[in-house]
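the two lines:
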Amino acid sequence: MKTQMAAVRPLVAVERTVRIAVAGNPNSGKSTLINSLAGSRLHVGNWPGVTVEKKEAAFERRGERIALVDLPGTYSLSPYTEEEVIARDYLVQERPDVIIDVVDVTNLERNLYLTVQLLELEIPVVVALNIFDEAEKKGYRIDVPAMEQALGVRIVPTVATKGTGLDALLEAATAAAGDPSRYRPRRLHYGDDIEAAAKSLMAEVLRRSPGLAETYPERWLAFKLLEGDRRVIEEVGLSGIEPLAAKAAEHLLSAHGEDVESLMADARYAQAAGLTREVLAKPDVRKVELTEKIDRIALNRFLGIPIFLAAMWLVFKLTFDVSAPFADGLATVTTGPFTRWTRVLVGLVRGPDWLVSLVTDGVIAGVGSVLVFVPVIFAMMFFITFLEGSGYMARAAFVMDRAMHSMGLHGKSFIPMLLGFGCNVPAIYATRTLENPRDKALTALLIPLMSCGARLPVYVLFVGAFFSSRSGTVLWSLYVMGIVLAVLMGILFKRTLFRGESPMFIMELPPYRMPSGRSLMIHTWEKGKHFLLKAGTYILAVSVLVWFLLNLPWGVEHKKDSYMGTIGQAIAPVFKPLGFGTWEAASSLVAGVIAKEIVVGTMGEIYVPEKKETPAGPPSSLSEDLREIGTSFAEAGKKVFTNVFSTAGIASLSGKGEGRENLRAVMAKTYTPLSAYAFMTFVLLYMPCVVAAAAFKHEFGTWKWFGVAFVYQTVLAWSMAFIIYQGGTILGIGG
Amino acid sequence: MNLAMLKPGEKGRVVGIGAIGPLKRRLMDMGVLVGEEIRVEKIAPLGDPIELTIKGYNLSLRKREAEGIAVEVCR
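prediction for all of em together
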């Protein structure tokens, strides 16, 4: 194949780029189709200024350069949702050479409603009649030539999950792009009144500004002006155009008693419905479909919630238990062999001790803290993509919406919040399943109140030292406190920051389908890679910064005299009313912004200074190191198995009672049970760690929402700890 | 009579959409048009939202949105 390509290429010297935009309804199999077309050449990013994902690919096919852009999945091209505006602006402003319109044949009429709107743009369209195999299995018969005739476009049956028809699709697309006059889409007739109104309005508009005919497809512009589309009216920016359009619209309104937007929707659906009747023949006897059978159980009044909870438990368990051993393995390798090698390397170039420490404790530790998140991000993306692709995500939203709506959230908010108990970072990324920006931001803001796995070691330390007889209850109370505060903050945010109409809930329940493995893999890989590159940079920077804070000024002997210690001393008074106004506690909390479990490590270092262990014993050889790497990953594989199959509990969340006896003894002298509880409350609530911060920035493209989380959580943490400590003191509890 | 009043298994024909602006446009984009037949399939376990069949596919709406859709019962 390769050699053949190489032989052909020199013959086709003319290089032109065919720009293809791929449009389609959500759940039409569009992303699978894109993945199959572009594969590993796919580049995933964001549309400028918004959080909507943008996929692009550039590749060569039979001597032609192809630039593929995936538009967000939309049902329509109205100006009301972010996705629709993006798709529309791209099509109108960039005018691709051809549009591939992915249509789910099993849901033909509603999919054609978008097709009809795409035709208005007068760009050549090629329709991919996707999921064709399922339609055939149902006994649907589709008259493809009649459909081509009626729409004036090329139509190619495809099965994206199996790769069927994709070559023909690209062939048709490049052909249509090469000869646009031959593949001009048909102008569908929207009824005499609308057509006449559009024609006379357009004549008047073009008389005033003839140049508009070059910027916009005429008919499309006329329809948008009639519909009173604010964005288009503003973009056109022609004075007097608004009253002109309004007058024409008024005329239609009085004739039909309906606003133009409704008339247009009716006219477009009439076209879609008419065409569907003409070209699609369904069998007379309708079988009860698999989706219906599954939903009778999955959405059952009594079984719906238990099934949902069981599914969620499974997702949570798989996400964290599958990834945890790999995270441990990665940590072992970075702190073990990798650190040792670096020491040797820096030693070889005669680097000074501080350089060794900067590289190992700063840079490598930073890289390590990024790496440990990679498995959980991969695992989470995998399961979330599976839930979405299979169709269960919409059911989960359906089942949970009532409960989530009461705190201003959407049914789909539940899964990200749940993942938050494992780790806030994948949870924040998981908010991408929410379409509405408001729902998304509000969900992400509440996620940090879900007590993540990294806070557990802190609780374990304190609970072990102060509440060993009631450890379960105390631990449980902290988790519940987080949930209760999330509900209260949700209600508060709903009434303040997110005041106004709560977004509508109009959601398709797509048929259950098995997502293609290839698509799952590509999606998961892209997300993981993105995280490594983007979030990794911030985390590394902060890690190096903290190293400097702990080790400057040069040659600092005691941690108290380091900049970190100085910061701790400076801010300690702030914590005085909370019962832990010591520089040790303050410094630990500052260090804990890297990851909350670091609070414990820092406390260990500060309270129980250990003798600096110079690498004792003979240095390990390369083969030993390699063996260690090998075994740690073999262990990881084994542990995944035992984690997933052995217990009903979540293995990665069970407290690890590390041997910190000395530390506990010191703590018992410095804290009272009351101040210990206040401290744990503070750790539960105070600012998200830097990885979560990076996730906020990465997912939302702005620091704004992290800023909000930072401020409200700091205030909340301080106030709650204050109330607990002062309240407890007054009541004489645990003092 | 509005859509939220139908019981699971009952069918209604849309006679009017009370919503305005984006909500109305969105409903129409999803195929909720005057004259269209809608069947109520299920009510979520917690009592809201509801699941409908329209134009051969399944759609879910909160009751609040469904209340704005006037229907006449079909037999």
